[in-house]
Each structure stands twice: as structure tokens, then as C-alpha cells.
Amino acid sequence: MANIRKLASGKWQARVHKDGKLVSIGTFRTSKEAKIEAAKVEERIYYGQTLNDRNMLFKEVVNDWLEHKKANVKESTFVQLEVIIRNHILPTFGDKKIMTIKRIEIKRWIATFGELNENGKEKYSFGSRLKYLSVMKSILHYAVHELEVLEKNPADKLKVPVKDSVALKKEKVKYFSLEELNQLLDFMKAYKHQRFPDYQLYYTLMLFLSKTGLRISEALALRWEDINGDKITIDKQTSRDDNNNVKLTTLKNSSSYRTIKIDNDLVRELKKFKMKQNELLLGNPRFRKNEDSIIFQNFNGHYLTPSTIRETMQDYCKKAGVDYKGTHGFRHTHAVLLLESGASLKYVSNRLGHKTIKTTADTYLDVTEKIEEDELQKFASYTKR
């Protein structure tokens, strides 16, 4: 039988018998609340379920959660989770008891990331705040359903404010127009590298990215054996460890594993590039072969690093008189040009390796809306009386 008593503070304490001892399960505003909670706990004891550990710290739950995640996510994802927790979650909640964390605290915490800095811009992007809240929800969900130290998830159904999601939709993806892309590629085709003038590594890489829509990490992992005629198989990607050593890892999700066709122009350019690469490997001792036979190797035989690619492409764009759009800009460019040429959303989604067609539609919302409007105008003109 539960023991309910009124404290000097005016609150009511509930205690239950466990292993021959009276164990406190907390204090409550009214006697009724204390009795209801005590009845729940006694039921858990009767059925041999775990009692809530009211002294368990949030950081202890996090450590347990991380061990669980380590066995179930990719290494690169695990590293991202660790960074989010270390920098953005533990400073606020780490030393708090898991049972004392309230919903209002979590709302205030996520709101701080949307505050404006001295430049009048939000401290963190909407996408970053979504990630932080998602990780927090996952930790608390684990505490409820796996550790059973919480009755309910205080972050359940919490959302980043709607006004922020509206602002997010107004953000436009960066891509090259067809004119800009051609201007950049024309410059790159005529550009001569000082050490190896005829080894057009960056021209071929830019052309390839704009013609395939591959993520840069997918392109850098490609080997010559992954190309069969006019088809390319994508089944791995590159990443870097803390010491900047290259690693080949699995892809983002199951939809990322795909085989795509490429057009005849790209097939010809790749053949020319391979011939030049082989010619240098055979005739120039300073040009070394990559042990994995990757396509986009540098003259030392190494994988290209993302930071070097960004800096180099930024410089080439400046010289070509074209605004730099980022390495992901070539992926966006491929998708936009496909949609503008009349390709279906489903085809574009499959080609990019998106998990759902909704991802494609949401990403290229402005483009698809413009295309729909143009198509509707055609229909209106055709049926006009």
C-alpha cells in the first residue's frame, strides 16, 4: 500500500514499498495526484517492470543512447550526433536529472538557436534547429521506451516555430543557369594547368557533376570499373576521418544505391579523359596511379579533398566570371535543367537517389511551380475559345 504524506512545503510526497523499503516516487501538488502516480508505480512493481530512477542524470541517458546508436548508424552519422550533443545539448541539460526536465525548458532551449545575432541574422539555420530538436526527441524517446526511466516524452510533438519553416521555403537552391554552366565549362575546357596542361581534371569533374547530379562524395569514390558503356553504378562514397584520411563508406540511404545512364557526349569526354590519364601514367614518372583506379585522381594518385575542390572551383568560377554555387550547386543544376527540359519528378528523384519524390518536389519547389504554371498556360492557350 502506498504511503502518502503532506510535506512542510505544502506538497504531497508519494512513497511505495519496493524490496522491503519505502521508496519516494516524487512530490505532487495534491493528494489525488500523488495517489494516482503511486498507483501507476505499484502496478509497474507488481508486473516486474523497471521503476523510474529519479536521480538518473540526462548525460547518463545520453551515454546509453550513444552506445545504442553506434551499433545502428553509419560512422559519419554517429560523429555528427556526437558533435550536436556535445556542443548544443549537454551544455544545457547534461547535469539535470532526467525526471526534472520540463517541456517548457526544451521549448526555450530550441528557441535560443533562432535568436538574432549582431548582424540581424538567426544564429542557426532552420535545418540545424530541426536536427537539434530531432536528436533531443530521440534521446528522450529512448529514455521512455528502452530505459523506462520516464513515463512520457516531454519533447513529444514539439516543433520548431512555423514562422521559421515559412522562411525556409523562401530560401532558393543555388544552381547554374544553362548559360552560366556553358560559360564555366567553356572556360574550363580552354584552361591549361601549369604542371599537366592536357590533364583536364576539373573540367571533367564539373562536366560530370552537371551531367549526372551525383553528390561530390559519390563522384570522388567512383572507379573506372563502375562505368559500363553508358551506365554508371553508384554504390559507395568518400568521407574523411579526424586526421583527414580518406575512407570509403556506405551511401546515405537505400535509395542512394542506383545505376544511371549518361549521354553520349559525357561518354566521349570520359573516354578522352581516361586515355589522357593512362598516357600520363605510362609516360610521366611524376604522374602516379591511384591504387583504387578511381576516376578523379590528382597527379599524385590521391583522392581529391573537399576543401581543395571548393577552393579550386571557387577560383575557377571567379576567373570564368560566374558566381560560385558550391559543389552541391552542380547537383542542383542537373536537377533543375532536367525539370526545365521536361523530365518527370519521379525520373529526377530516382536519378538523384532521393528517398522520396516529396524530397525532390520540396527541394525544387520554385522550379516545379514555374514549370506547372508554364504547362497550365499552354493548356489555357490550347483550349481558349
TrEMBL record:
PROSITE patterns: CB (PS51900), TYR_RECOMBINASE (PS51898). It comes from the Bacteria. InterPro entries: CB, DNA_brk_join_enz, Integrase-like_cat_sf, Integrase_catalytic, Integrase_recombinase_N, Integrase_SAM-like_N, Tyrosine_recombinase_XerCD. One of its GO terms (biological process) is DNA recombination. The keyword DNA-binding applies. Residues 171-377 form the Tyr recombinase domain. GO terms for molecular function: DNA binding. It holds the Pfam family Phage_int_SAM_3. SUPFAM superfamilies: DNA breaking-rejoining enzymes. Residues 56-144 form the Core-binding (CB) domain. Signal peptide: none annotated. The keyword DNA-binding applies. Belongs to the 'phage' integrase family. This is Site-specific recombinase XerD. It comes from Evansella caseinilytica.
